[in-house]
Design brief:
This protein is an alpha/beta fold. Helix content is about 40%, strand content about 10%. This is Beta-amylase.
Length: about 700
């Protein structure tokens, strides 16, 4: 338990013990009535000290602690060892609860809280959100403009050091969080991001020059009458307190000047083209594209939905909305990345529109539901077609692969001039759910929740027929079945006989089944890409691969196995996929490049996730065979810390071969990205990706 909590709060056991001892001493002092001025000053300092303070600063705090005495001048009373241990356990439990609260605020409210923030940071952040001013020593008072602003109205805040997010990836310890207010809950849900990192003079630099440089940001970004309020109020802190406040260390930030140029694209909203294949809001979109162009964004990415273009009748394609969109992009001299989206939209995390598969496909599915992926309980997943019908003529005389090929040929013929002019720079071919090359093993509509292992999706009649044929060819016809001890969607590996340590996944039958399961995935990609290469000859094609990072630190890698990636700890499951992409000169679009372990440890320490380890395994598998790598963010990304993580992966430091990403796509265009402050941070990211 102690180990789990230690990972949760991100501190070492030695630090815990030292801090617990200090807490115990403070409790003793309170019982004796000995709370002197020095202890009060130390409480203020500890509230503003970041997690990466130097050893000298810690020793300085210890010296203050040692000077605190009881009113009678004697030494503190010593508590029994058992009581001190109980105090440590209570404190660790309190910190674990605090860590989960902070994780929720960071993930769902996007407060700029440092990794080792405590309850003081939460109170300070909420106070600033309500329009109060909170000084580094904890002094709190209403802002001058609060009286004229209704509760819940727009507020501006300058974050103190107690609410800075300081980590190894943080570019500067002096950061200003801009918290826009929200008039209604609808407005809040539309703009969930609470803060943007901007360079700012340290609030601890109290010289005459810097006092006048700490503004409060108004609604439009202009300086208000209260700009100098924070700086002037710092004079109320006595000289002794100022002298005891340690300086904030400035962390160095990597210089990306003169690094390789990586083009940046922005994914358009899912519903930019409506179900009638019309451009929904051409005027509004044009304004947004012009803003992107002003930031030197290279182009946009858009889904070309099969369920919209070939909606009603086989081989009757309607490209009208896309024609108008592409013409708009051409006039702005932007480039295009297009996605052949052969899956439905809706029902997954982040889907805000519903775009089903073509109506005529749904009619076939009602009479023959085996055209869809099926789990062990017989539940059908209509998100995409089963790979078992790739060569089965069940779609009104055509196989699934022929349907995909006809669709791609129609697109190429319709927009051939855009290919000839180089405006369409890449075509990403959808190969499964969410356009990714994987099985739909963790569908939210069937009850899956992170970090469940998911379920195998091979129980339609066509895939079972393939499994039976393979088992008979192997000489073991009784192997023609799926595992019966692989758990359920939300199981964890130790709870199953198949994925547990030393489980059946590594037995004779387990290895046979998993080899067949992943071969079906690779063969599907091979068939579709061979035709995509013909349809889009001369243009870069790409395949999207999802980053399934949970349970990566277990031996079985259960979540990857159910998704079709045969990648246990004793096997490289991505080498075969990379080799297949190499045969077709296809790029790999990997969607996990911005994730990092701090967030995952705080939220799901029990998931044994390792997104960074997965990223580098996949990147090395691709670079080993020489295929280009594109990337996009899997989660919303608007802050500098996450952008810096993407930059570090896109341009590996000191790589002897100078390898880097082919392109990066920001996921996705939204009102929040167009916000003045968030867009400034995005514009800075684009410059660094370009090597400026």
């Amino acid at each position: 338990m102690a180990t789990d909590i230690q990972k949760l709060i991100g501190t070492s056991e030695e630090d815990d013990d030292e801090e617990m001892d200090m807490d115990v001493k403070e409790e003793d002092n309170e019982e004796n009535g000995g709370k002197n001025t020095v202890a009060q000053i130390m409480a203020g300092v500890s509230g503003g000290t970041t997690s990466n303070s130097s050893d000298n600063q810690f020793q300085h705090q210890q010296q203050f602690q040692e000077q605190v005495t009881t009113p009678s001048g004697g030494a503190r009373r010593s508590r029994p060892l058992e009581e001190k241990e109980r105090t440590k356990l209570r404190e660790r439990h309190r910190r674990a609860i605090t860590a989960r609260i902070l994780a929720g605020l960071r993930r769902h409210g996007n407060y700029n809280l440092r990794v080792r923030a405590d309850i003081n940071d939460v109170i300070a952040a909420l106070a600033r959100e309500a329009g109060w001013d909170v000084l580094p020593d904890g002094t709190t008072f209403p802002s001058r403009s609060q009286g004229s602003r209704p509760v819940g109205g727009t507020s501006a805040a300058v974050t103190s050091s107690s609410s800075h997010l300081v980590s190894q990836q943080t570019p500067s310890a002096s950061l200003r969080g801009v918290s826009p207010g929200y008039q209604t809950s609808v407005e809040y849900n539309t703009c969930r991001m609470r803060g943007v990192f901007m360079p700012n003079p340290s609030p601890y630099n109290l010289s005459a020059n810097t006092q006048s440089q700490i503004p409060a940001v108004g609604e439009g970004g202009e300086q208000t009458e209260s700009d100098l309020h924070i700086g002037g109020s710092m004079d109320t802190i006595n000289d002794k307190q100022i002298a005891d406040i340690p300086p904030i260390p400035k962390l160095p930030e990597r210089d990306f000047a003169a690094t390789p140029f990586i083009p940046v694209y922005v994914m358009l909203p899912l519903g930019v083209i409506n179900m009638k294949c019309e451009l929904g809001d051409p005027d509004g979109l044009l304004k947004q594209l012009k803003v992107l162009k002003s930031a030197n964004v290279d182009g946009i990415m858009v889904d070309c939905w099969w369920g919209i273009v070939e909606a009603h009748t086989p081989q009757e394609y309607n490209w009208n909305g896309y024609s108008r969109l592409f013409q708009m992009v051409r006039e702005l001299k932007l480039k295009l990345q297009v996605v052949m989206s052969f899956h439905e939209c809706g029902g997954n995390v982040g889907d805000d529109v519903c775009i089903p598969l073509p109506h005529w496909v749904a009619e076939i599915g009602r009479s023959n539901p085996d055209i869809f992926f099926t789990d062990r309980e017989g539940r059908r997943n209509s998100e995409c077609l089963s790979w078992g019908i790739d060569k089965e003529r069940v779609l009104r005389g055509r196989t699934a692969v022929e349907v995909y090929f006809d669709y791609m040929r129609s697109f190429r013929a319709e927009f051939d001039e855009f290919f000839a002019d180089g405006i369409i720079s890449m075509v990403e071919v959808g190969l499964g759910p969410c356009g990714e090359l994987r099985y739909p093993s963790f569908p939210v509509k069937h009850g899956w929740r992170y970090p469940g292992i998911g379920e195998f999706q091979c129980y339609d009649q066509y895939l079972l027929k393939s499994l039976k044929k393979t088992a008979e060819a192997r000489g073991h016809p009784f192997w023609a079945r799926g595992p019966d001890n692989a758990g359920f969607y939300n199981s964890q590996p130790p709870e199953t006989g198949f994925f547990c340590e030393g489980g059946d996944y590594d037995g004779y039958y387990g290895r046979f089944f998993l080899n067949w399961y992943t071969r079906i995935l690779v063969d599907h990609g091979d068939r579709v890409l061979s035709l995509a290469k013909l349809a889009f000859e001369g243009t870069q094609i790409a395949v999207k691969l999802s980053g399934i990072h949970w349970w990566y630190k277990t031996a079985s890698h259960a979540a990857e196995l159910t998704a079709g990636f045969y990648n246990p700890c004793n096997r490289d499951g991505y080498a075969a996929i990379a080799a297949m992409l190499k045969r077709h000169k296809a790029a790999l679009n990997f969607s996990c490049s911005e994730l990092w372990m701090v967030d995952q440890q705080v939220d799901f320490s029990e998931a044994l996730a390792d997104p960074e380890g997965l990223v580098w395994q996949v990147l090395n598998a691709a670079w080993e065979v020489g295929i280009p790598i594109a990337s996009e963010n899997a989660l919303p990304c608007y802050d500098r810390v996450t952008y810096n993580k993407i930059l570090d992966n896109a341009k590996p430091l000191n790589d002897p071969d100078g390898r880097h990403f082919l392109s990066f796509t920001h996921h996705r265009l939204s009102p929040l990205l167009m916000d003045r402050q968030t867009f400034m941070e995005f514009e800075r990211f684009v410059k660094r990706m370009h090597g400026s």
